Amino acid sequence: MRYFAQVVEKGNMTKAAEALNVAQPALGLQIRQLEDLLGTPLFDRHSRGVAVTAAGRILYERAKVILQLMEEAENEIQSLTKSKRETLTLGVTPSIMGLIGGDILTTARQEMPKVFLRLVEEPSFLLVEGIARNDVDIALVYDVEDQVNLRSIPLVNEELLLVQRYDASLADREITFGELAKFELVLVHDRDPIRQKVEAEARNRDISLEIAYEVQSLNATLDVIKGSDVVSVMPYGTVAAALERKELSARRIVSPIIQRTLYVSRHARRGRFLNEEAISRFVELLVARFTERLPGCSPV
Protein backbone atom coordinates (compact mmCIF):
# COMPACT_ATOMS: atom_id res chain seq x y z
CA MET A 1 0.00 0.00 0.00
CA ARG A 2 2.89 2.36 0.76
CA TYR A 3 4.36 1.68 -2.68
CA PHE A 4 1.04 2.46 -4.33
CA ALA A 5 0.64 5.74 -2.42
CA GLN A 6 4.16 6.84 -3.35
CA VAL A 7 3.47 6.26 -7.07
CA VAL A 8 0.31 8.38 -6.84
CA GLU A 9 2.18 11.21 -5.10
CA LYS A 10 5.15 11.16 -7.47
CA GLY A 11 3.12 10.58 -10.66
CA ASN A 12 6.08 8.66 -12.02
CA MET A 13 7.35 5.10 -11.48
CA THR A 14 11.02 6.09 -11.69
CA LYS A 15 10.72 8.88 -9.11
CA ALA A 16 8.64 6.69 -6.82
CA ALA A 17 11.20 3.86 -7.02
CA GLU A 18 14.01 6.30 -6.15
CA ALA A 19 12.08 7.66 -3.17
CA LEU A 20 11.33 4.13 -1.93
CA ASN A 21 14.86 2.91 -2.66
CA VAL A 22 13.59 -0.09 -4.63
CA ALA A 23 14.19 -1.24 -8.20
CA GLN A 24 11.69 0.11 -10.71
CA PRO A 25 10.79 -3.36 -12.12
CA ALA A 26 10.05 -4.60 -8.59
CA LEU A 27 7.83 -1.58 -7.95
CA GLY A 28 6.02 -2.08 -11.25
CA LEU A 29 5.40 -5.72 -10.37
CA GLN A 30 3.92 -4.77 -7.00
CA ILE A 31 1.53 -2.32 -8.66
CA ARG A 32 0.45 -4.87 -11.30
CA GLN A 33 -0.18 -7.47 -8.61
CA LEU A 34 -2.34 -4.97 -6.72
CA GLU A 35 -4.30 -4.20 -9.89
CA ASP A 36 -4.79 -7.94 -10.53
CA LEU A 37 -6.00 -8.40 -6.97
CA LEU A 38 -8.56 -5.60 -7.30
CA GLY A 39 -9.48 -6.49 -10.88
CA THR A 40 -9.13 -2.96 -12.24
CA PRO A 41 -6.39 -0.60 -13.48
CA LEU A 42 -5.19 1.87 -10.87
CA PHE A 43 -3.08 3.95 -13.27
CA ASP A 44 -3.15 5.07 -16.88
CA ARG A 45 0.40 4.72 -18.23
CA HIS A 46 1.80 7.33 -20.64
CA SER A 47 5.21 8.48 -21.85
CA ARG A 48 5.62 11.11 -19.12
CA GLY A 49 4.65 8.87 -16.22
CA VAL A 50 1.35 7.64 -14.80
CA ALA A 51 -2.05 9.18 -14.03
CA VAL A 52 -4.26 7.73 -11.33
CA THR A 53 -7.62 6.33 -12.46
CA ALA A 54 -10.95 6.89 -10.69
CA ALA A 55 -10.53 3.53 -8.94
CA GLY A 56 -6.97 4.43 -8.02
CA ARG A 57 -8.12 7.72 -6.53
CA ILE A 58 -10.63 5.92 -4.29
CA LEU A 59 -7.94 3.48 -3.15
CA TYR A 60 -5.47 6.31 -2.50
CA GLU A 61 -7.87 8.12 -0.18
CA ARG A 62 -8.37 4.90 1.80
CA ALA A 63 -4.64 4.11 1.70
CA LYS A 64 -3.74 7.42 3.36
CA VAL A 65 -5.99 6.58 6.30
CA ILE A 66 -4.67 3.01 6.54
CA LEU A 67 -1.02 4.08 6.46
CA GLN A 68 -1.59 6.73 9.11
CA LEU A 69 -3.36 4.22 11.38
CA MET A 70 -0.51 1.75 10.89
CA GLU A 71 2.05 4.36 11.90
CA GLU A 72 0.05 5.37 14.96
CA ALA A 73 -0.29 1.70 15.97
CA GLU A 74 3.45 1.18 15.58
CA ASN A 75 4.15 4.23 17.77
CA GLU A 76 1.75 3.00 20.44
CA ILE A 77 3.30 -0.48 20.45
CA GLN A 78 6.79 0.97 20.74
CA SER A 79 5.64 3.10 23.67
CA LEU A 80 5.07 -0.12 25.65
CA THR A 81 8.86 -0.25 26.01
CA LYS A 82 9.13 2.32 28.75
CA SER A 83 12.88 2.82 28.48
CA LYS A 84 12.79 3.71 24.78
CA ARG A 85 12.73 7.43 24.02
CA GLU A 86 10.81 8.65 20.98
CA THR A 87 13.07 10.00 18.23
CA LEU A 88 12.27 13.27 16.46
CA THR A 89 14.22 14.13 13.31
CA LEU A 90 13.92 17.88 12.90
CA GLY A 91 15.06 19.63 9.72
CA VAL A 92 16.07 23.30 9.59
CA THR A 93 17.64 25.49 6.93
CA PRO A 94 21.13 27.05 7.28
CA SER A 95 19.67 30.51 7.94
CA ILE A 96 17.57 29.20 10.83
CA MET A 97 20.55 27.28 12.20
CA GLY A 98 22.61 30.47 11.98
CA LEU A 99 20.22 32.34 14.26
CA ILE A 100 19.00 29.76 16.78
CA GLY A 101 21.19 26.67 16.36
CA GLY A 102 22.26 26.63 20.00
CA ASP A 103 18.73 27.29 21.25
CA ILE A 104 17.39 24.27 19.38
CA LEU A 105 19.40 21.82 21.45
CA THR A 106 18.92 23.48 24.84
CA THR A 107 15.18 23.96 24.26
CA ALA A 108 14.82 20.33 23.20
CA ARG A 109 16.35 19.14 26.48
CA GLN A 110 14.11 21.43 28.53
CA GLU A 111 10.82 20.86 26.70
CA MET A 112 11.11 17.25 25.47
CA PRO A 113 12.80 15.06 28.14
CA LYS A 114 11.22 11.93 26.66
CA VAL A 115 12.31 12.70 23.09
CA PHE A 116 15.68 12.10 21.45
CA LEU A 117 16.33 14.92 18.96
CA ARG A 118 18.12 14.26 15.69
CA LEU A 119 18.90 17.60 14.00
CA VAL A 120 19.36 17.94 10.21
CA GLU A 121 20.58 21.13 8.47
CA GLU A 122 19.85 21.31 4.74
CA PRO A 123 18.28 23.67 2.17
CA SER A 124 14.48 23.60 2.03
CA PHE A 125 14.22 21.47 -1.12
CA LEU A 126 16.41 18.74 0.40
CA LEU A 127 14.41 18.77 3.63
CA VAL A 128 11.20 18.37 1.62
CA GLU A 129 12.73 15.36 -0.13
CA GLY A 130 13.70 14.01 3.29
CA ILE A 131 10.12 14.31 4.52
CA ALA A 132 8.90 12.44 1.41
CA ARG A 133 11.34 9.59 2.19
CA ASN A 134 10.33 9.64 5.89
CA ASP A 135 13.93 10.57 6.79
CA VAL A 136 12.72 13.84 8.35
CA ASP A 137 9.72 14.05 10.69
CA ILE A 138 9.19 17.81 10.92
CA ALA A 139 10.96 20.63 9.11
CA LEU A 140 11.03 24.40 9.18
CA VAL A 141 11.18 25.16 5.46
CA TYR A 142 10.46 27.95 3.03
CA ASP A 143 7.91 28.36 0.21
CA VAL A 144 6.42 24.85 0.15
CA GLU A 145 2.77 25.78 -0.34
CA ASP A 146 2.52 23.75 -3.57
CA GLN A 147 3.84 20.47 -2.15
CA VAL A 148 0.92 18.02 -2.22
CA ASN A 149 2.51 15.37 0.01
CA LEU A 150 3.10 17.82 2.88
CA ARG A 151 0.90 19.11 5.65
CA SER A 152 2.25 22.63 6.07
CA ILE A 153 1.33 25.62 8.22
CA PRO A 154 2.58 29.09 7.20
CA LEU A 155 4.27 30.97 10.02
CA VAL A 156 6.04 34.21 9.01
CA ASN A 157 7.04 36.20 5.94
CA GLU A 158 10.75 37.06 5.84
CA GLU A 159 12.36 39.79 3.74
CA LEU A 160 15.43 38.99 1.66
CA LEU A 161 18.37 41.40 1.68
CA LEU A 162 21.05 42.68 -0.65
CA VAL A 163 24.37 41.62 0.90
CA GLN A 164 27.66 43.32 -0.05
CA ARG A 165 31.06 44.03 1.41
CA TYR A 166 31.10 46.22 4.50
CA ASP A 167 30.55 49.94 4.05
CA ALA A 168 29.37 51.96 7.07
CA SER A 169 27.85 54.61 4.78
CA LEU A 170 25.30 52.05 3.50
CA ALA A 171 23.62 51.61 6.89
CA ASP A 172 19.81 51.87 6.57
CA ARG A 173 20.04 52.69 2.86
CA GLU A 174 17.44 50.82 0.82
CA ILE A 175 17.85 49.69 -2.76
CA THR A 176 15.16 49.10 -5.37
CA PHE A 177 14.89 45.77 -7.10
CA GLY A 178 15.65 47.45 -10.42
CA GLU A 179 19.01 48.62 -9.09
CA LEU A 180 20.18 45.01 -8.82
CA ALA A 181 20.91 45.24 -12.54
CA LYS A 182 23.85 47.54 -11.69
CA PHE A 183 25.69 44.82 -9.78
CA GLU A 184 27.42 41.56 -10.51
CA LEU A 185 25.67 38.84 -8.52
CA VAL A 186 26.86 35.64 -6.88
CA LEU A 187 24.02 33.13 -6.48
CA VAL A 188 23.68 29.42 -5.81
CA HIS A 189 22.34 26.72 -8.15
CA ASP A 190 19.09 27.16 -10.07
CA ARG A 191 17.19 24.77 -7.75
CA ASP A 192 17.57 27.29 -4.94
CA PRO A 193 14.21 28.97 -4.14
CA ILE A 194 15.81 32.36 -3.49
CA ARG A 195 17.49 32.39 -6.89
CA GLN A 196 14.24 31.27 -8.52
CA LYS A 197 12.34 34.05 -6.76
CA VAL A 198 14.88 36.72 -7.80
CA GLU A 199 15.03 35.55 -11.42
CA ALA A 200 11.23 35.31 -11.68
CA GLU A 201 10.83 38.90 -10.46
CA ALA A 202 13.51 40.05 -12.90
CA ARG A 203 11.67 38.38 -15.80
CA ASN A 204 8.38 39.97 -14.73
CA ARG A 205 10.01 43.39 -14.79
CA ASP A 206 12.09 42.75 -17.90
CA ILE A 207 15.29 43.33 -15.93
CA SER A 208 18.54 41.69 -17.00
CA LEU A 209 20.64 40.42 -14.09
CA GLU A 210 24.35 39.71 -14.38
CA ILE A 211 25.20 36.51 -12.52
CA ALA A 212 28.97 36.57 -12.27
CA TYR A 213 29.37 33.46 -10.11
CA GLU A 214 27.36 30.37 -9.23
CA VAL A 215 28.72 29.04 -5.93
CA GLN A 216 27.46 26.10 -3.89
CA SER A 217 29.46 26.89 -0.75
CA LEU A 218 28.15 29.49 1.71
CA ASN A 219 31.65 30.23 3.06
CA ALA A 220 33.00 30.72 -0.46
CA THR A 221 30.09 33.00 -1.32
CA LEU A 222 30.72 35.18 1.73
CA ASP A 223 34.45 35.34 0.99
CA VAL A 224 33.78 36.49 -2.58
CA ILE A 225 31.45 39.24 -1.35
CA LYS A 226 33.88 40.41 1.35
CA GLY A 227 36.73 40.78 -1.14
CA SER A 228 35.02 42.29 -4.18
CA ASP A 229 32.15 44.39 -5.48
CA VAL A 230 30.03 41.29 -6.13
CA VAL A 231 26.74 41.19 -4.20
CA SER A 232 24.10 38.59 -3.40
CA VAL A 233 20.48 38.29 -2.28
CA MET A 234 20.36 36.37 0.98
CA PRO A 235 18.32 35.87 4.17
CA TYR A 236 19.37 37.65 7.35
CA GLY A 237 20.08 34.47 9.30
CA THR A 238 22.73 33.35 6.82
CA VAL A 239 24.82 36.50 7.28
CA ALA A 240 23.88 37.64 10.81
CA ALA A 241 27.27 36.75 12.32
CA ALA A 242 29.20 38.51 9.53
CA LEU A 243 27.01 41.60 9.88
CA GLU A 244 27.66 41.73 13.61
CA ARG A 245 31.42 41.50 12.98
CA LYS A 246 31.10 44.31 10.39
CA GLU A 247 32.46 42.10 7.64
CA LEU A 248 29.41 42.64 5.43
CA SER A 249 26.62 45.16 4.91
CA ALA A 250 22.96 44.33 4.27
CA ARG A 251 20.33 46.56 2.65
CA ARG A 252 16.57 46.20 2.32
CA ILE A 253 15.29 45.58 -1.21
CA VAL A 254 12.14 47.56 -2.05
CA SER A 255 9.88 48.19 -5.04
CA PRO A 256 9.08 45.38 -4.61
CA ILE A 257 10.05 43.81 -1.31
CA ILE A 258 11.29 40.26 -1.94
CA GLN A 259 9.88 37.86 0.64
CA ARG A 260 9.76 34.19 1.40
CA THR A 261 7.39 32.35 3.73
CA LEU A 262 8.47 30.03 6.54
CA TYR A 263 6.37 26.89 7.08
CA VAL A 264 6.39 24.08 9.58
CA SER A 265 5.87 20.91 7.56
CA ARG A 266 5.45 17.19 8.03
CA HIS A 267 4.36 14.37 5.74
CA ALA A 268 0.65 14.43 4.93
CA ARG A 269 0.33 10.85 6.18
CA ARG A 270 2.40 11.37 9.34
CA GLY A 271 0.44 10.32 12.42
CA ARG A 272 0.64 11.87 15.87
CA PHE A 273 3.84 11.56 17.87
CA LEU A 274 3.72 9.81 21.22
CA ASN A 275 4.85 13.14 22.70
CA GLU A 276 2.82 15.31 20.31
CA GLU A 277 2.05 18.08 22.82
CA ALA A 278 5.67 18.46 23.94
CA ILE A 279 6.94 18.42 20.35
CA SER A 280 4.37 21.03 19.26
CA ARG A 281 5.35 23.27 22.17
CA PHE A 282 9.03 22.82 21.30
CA VAL A 283 8.46 23.89 17.68
CA GLU A 284 6.38 26.90 18.80
CA LEU A 285 9.20 28.08 21.06
CA LEU A 286 11.78 27.71 18.28
CA VAL A 287 9.68 29.77 15.89
CA ALA A 288 9.12 32.46 18.53
CA ARG A 289 12.86 32.74 19.23
CA PHE A 290 13.68 32.80 15.53
CA THR A 291 11.26 35.64 14.79
CA GLU A 292 12.51 37.62 17.81
CA ARG A 293 15.96 37.74 16.21
CA LEU A 294 14.79 38.26 12.64
CA PRO A 295 14.39 41.85 11.41
CA GLY A 296 11.89 42.56 8.66
CA CYS A 297 9.57 39.63 9.35
CA SER A 298 5.79 39.66 9.69
CA PRO A 299 3.27 37.00 10.73
CA VAL A 300 1.30 35.37 7.92
Automatic annotation (TrEMBL):
Residues 63-90 form a coiled coil. Pfam families: HTH_1, LysR_substrate. Keywords: Coiled coil, DNA-binding, Transcription, Transcription regulation. Residues 1-53 form the HTH lysR-type domain. InterPro entries: HTH-type_LysR_regulators, LysR_HTH_N, LysR_subst-bd, WH-like_DNA-bd_sf, WH_DNA-bd_sf. GO terms for cellular component: cytosol. GO terms for molecular function: DNA binding; DNA-binding transcription factor activity. The keyword DNA-binding applies. Belongs to the LysR transcriptional regulatory family. This is LysR family transcriptional regulator. It comes from Pelagibacterium lacus. The lineage of its organism: Bacteria, Pseudomonadati, Pseudomonadota, Alphaproteobacteria, Hyphomicrobiales.
